[in-house]
Amino acid sequence: MEVSGNQKVKAPRPQVFNALLDPETLKNSVPGCDSAEFVDFPTGRQLKLTVSPNFPGLKGPYNVFLQTGEVVPPSHLVLIAEPTSSFGSIKATCSIDLTDVPEGTEIVYNAQAEIEGKIAMTPDFIINKAVKAALDQFFKNFEKQASTAKV
User: What is the C-alpha to C-alpha distance for residues 54 and 130, in angstroms, rounded to an integer?
Assistant: First the structure.
């Protein structure tokens, strides 16, 4: 599965970049997120999100571990997520580029996800609808959080 798009945020680029890495901002932006905290692993620090999605057949809670790949402040970031449950797993990589625009910052994202297990048997149109709804809600929440965050 591949998802890409863009979103404008009414905040300066450094503020938006920092908000993408802030646990509290993400907790308040990710639909169904119950908690967000940093966890130290031998391979490095990861952000642990506990998420209870509101999609039929995908009730949680799920632990999602986010780690960063490439990080070029304040313009580029790669996030890697690997949530796992009894329904299967999803390995997602999202490349995010930030550019200055007159209204603030434009976020351009491109994500690829590999889906395995029972969840992979869900028809594409259902998954695509759920992902689109979640992204729309995330960006609505994120816009509010990032535009009021402290740099």
Answer: 9
